[in-house]
UniProtKB/TrEMBL annotation:
The chain crosses the membrane at residues 53-71. GO terms for cellular component: apical plasma membrane; sodium channel complex. This is SCNNG protein. Residues 578-597 are annotated as: Disordered. The gene is Scnn1g. It comes from Casuarius casuarius. GO terms for molecular function: ligand-gated sodium channel activity. It is found in: Apical cell membrane.
Length: 653
């Protein structure tokens, strides 16, 4: 059907009108259009400047500005994840922390003699053989090989050895004979007590029960450390076989440990303490544990308003081979925190008044991406064995215990039991000691992966402690105080307590200033966008709209042009191939079409006068057109044969 005249004119103008802007057919035309129409400074000057030098200068300035923008924005992004530390101090009524108290001696030696009699006997034999020690009397030291002293199972499991000049030639305590040993030597140097002969090195040998050639030698320059370490290994092996209920009965009760108690000026008793059993320290007691849902607080600083207790440690009933110091061990901690007495506990000496002043600090760090800390520990692939809030120590101990169960088949005595596991003893697990030492060596060298898995907690509470010690009781008051305390203890009046059996402890806030240390983001998303805008406006006079324009032109439109031309090439190749198959000649390339000859460019708007003025000039080889008429041959002819009467001039009348 015939096309309407208006549509014919529109189609003709579209065919010859060159296209600019996002619908330009080539990248060069698109870039030229962008530079002429963009609002960013510099780009337009590149196009409109006359002279190569001036154009080159504007290109360098524009590229330098773009480079500075990218550099400054990269710095802003890198600093976005930085944090600033702020310290806030508040004066208010503070909750009193939990205070866990343990006797350094975990179990009454008199109650443990039935379990430890054989071990103590062999330990005394070892002391007599090595050092000539017998029942507390020092004798002349004799040669180890003079007598075959013992053949007990303790020395069969872990033989005590004397090394000659740090060599692998040893004298076995059990056999009294010299022999060569194989295995790696681990020297645990110590300067606590040295033997008379500096060449005498005491140690023991641990071998793999499944492979006797796999051994490790552990040496000590101090005989005290060697005997104690050897004793503790057998001690843990024995204690692992005793039920928990029995061990709680063998340890100290609250009535045994506590003599007097005051808090905030008021009297307190064992009802304010919660017992929990520690594998290495026996029965420990926590003041203000919060188990009943109530946490005590204090409204005044000073020693009179803190916790004051007098403890009875009963030094005479200490295990002489297990512990070499006397007193108590305490730890100040949060109610939801597990007290690692063995790691960070504070030792309190007897026959002295120990005052511990506290400063409370609460810290909070930002989690990812600002730091590598964890909020609750839920993202750490290690089971929490302590049933307390997450901490780095809990994670490390739990990780080691899990590795112990996986590698050795049993759990280490000093840490909680995982589900389905049991504590190691060499009756059921003859290889556990060698396995434990090898595993602990890997743990210390950070080869188990626990240090890489475990992370710091993002929030934690800390009590900074200041300790001072005074003699207690004084010489003047010693007599009557010990008599009164003996009466309170239920002893006969004529049998006083010894002051070395007593520990006086005071724990209090020095002030009620709560220090809160927190990390805050240096930059928020608002400040980041504002800084971006400042950089873009400073160097390129650019706004967010300009950025969107750049994205549209340089990415979307450029991609469309590239894909369009590829599609046209592919279409041309396909059409040429089809024509070759049917034997038709190839037609002109569709790529030669400019402007609206491109079928992708579709614009239904009618042409305007301004767009018509931009029509290209006709080509030189344009087709011949109909020549214009010869106006001199044109004549006016009337359409009527005679003039109408009403058109005649009135003057003719």
């Amino acid at each position: 059907c015939a096309m309407a005249p208006g549509k014919k004119i529109t189609a003709k103008i579209k065919k010859t009108l060159p296209v600019t802007g996002p619908q330009a057919p080539t990248l060069s035309e698109l870039m030229n259009w962008y530079c002429l129409n963009t609002n960013t400074h510099g780009c337009r000057r590149i196009v409109v400047s006359r002279g190569r030098l001036r154009r080159l200068i504007w290109i360098l300035l524009t590229l330098s500005a773009v480079g500075l923008i990218l550099w400054q924005c990269a710095e802003l992004l890198m600093n976005y994840y930085s944090a600033s530390v702020s310290v806030t101090v508040q004066f208010q009524k503070l909750p009193f922390p939990a205070v866990t108290i343990c006797n350094i001696n975990p179990y009454k030696y008199s109650a443990m003699k039935d379990y430890l009699s054989e071990l103590d006997k062999e330990t005394k034999n070892a002391l007599e053989t090595f050092y000539g020690f017998s029942e507390g009397k020092s004798k002349v030291r004799r040669s180890v090989g003079d007598e075959n002293t013992t053949g007990s199972e303790f020395f069969e499991q872990i033989p005590l050895l004397k090394f000659e000049d740090f060599s692998k030639t040893v004298i076995d305590l059990r056999s009294g004979q010299k022999r060569k040993t194989e295995g790696n030597v681990f020297h645990k140097d110590s300067s606590i007590v040295n033997s008379e002969d500096s060449n005498d090195i005491i140690g023991f040998q641990l071998c793999d029960a499944n492979n006797s050639s796999e051994c490790a030698l552990y040496t000590f320059s101090s005989g005290v450390n060697a005997i104690q370490e050897w004793y503790k290994l057998h001690y843990m092996n024995i204690m692992a076989q005793i039920p928990l209920e029995t061990k709680e009965e063998l340890s100290y009760s609250a009535d045994d440990l506590l003599l007097t108690c005051f808090f905030d000026g008021l009297s307190c008793d064992k009802r304010h303490f919660t017992r929990f059993h520690h594998p290495l320290y026996g029965n420990c007691y926590t003041f203000n544990s919060g188990e009943n849902g109530t946490v005590l607080s204090t409204s005044t600083g000073g020693s009179e308003y803190g916790l004051q207790v007098v403890l009875y440690i009963d030094e005479a009933d200490y295990n002489p081979f297990l512990v070499t110091s006397s007193g108590a061990k305490i730890m100040v901690h949060d109610q939801n925190e597990y007290p690692f007495i063995e790691d960070i506990g504070t030792e309190i000496e007897p026959a002295a008044a120990t005052s511990i002043g506290m400063h409370f600090t609460q810290s909070r760090k930002l989690s990812k991406p600002y730091s590598d800390c964890t909020e609750t520990g839920a993202d750490i692939p290690v089971e929490n064995l302590y049933n307390k809030s997450y901490s780095l120590q809990i994670c490390l101990h739990s990780c080691f215990q899990k590795a112990m169960v996986d590698s050795c088949g049993c759990a280490q005595y000093a840490q909680p039991l995982p589900a389905g596991a049991e504590y190691c003893n060499y009756k059921k697990n003859p290889n556990w000691m060698y396995c434990y030492y090898r595993l602990h060596e890997k743990f210390v060298k950070e080869q188990l992966g626990c240090q890489q898995i475990c992370k710091d907690a993002c929030s934690f509470k800390e009590w900074a402690l200041t300790t001072s010690i005074a003699q207690w009781p004084s010489t003047a008051s010693e007599d009557w105080m010990l008599r009164v305390l003996s009466w309170d203890k239920g002893q006969k009046i004529n049998k006083k307590l010894n002051k070395t059996d007593l520990v006086n402890l005071m724990v209090f806030y020095e002030d009620l200033n709560e220090r809160f240390i927190s990390e805050n983001p240096t930059n928020t998303i608002v400040t980041l966008l504002s800084n971006f805008g400042g950089q873009l406006g400073l160097w390129m006079s650019c706004s967010v709209v300009c950025v969107i324009e750049i994205v549209e032109v340089f990415f979307i439109d450029s991609f469309s042009i590239v894909m369009r031309r590829r599609w046209q090439k592919t279409k041309k190749w396909w059409n040429d191939r089809k024509r070759e198959q049917v034997g038709k000649p190839s037609q002109a390339s569709d790529l030669d079409g400019q402007g609206h000859d491109n079928p992708v460019c579709i614009d239904e708007d009618l042409p305007t006068f301004n767009t018509a003025l931009r029509l290209p000039l006709p080509r030189e080889n344009h087709l011949p057109r109909t020549p214009p008429p010869n106006y001199s041959t044109l004549r006016l002819e009337t359409a009527f044969t005679e003039q109408l009467p009403d058109t005649l001039d009135v003057r003719q009348h």
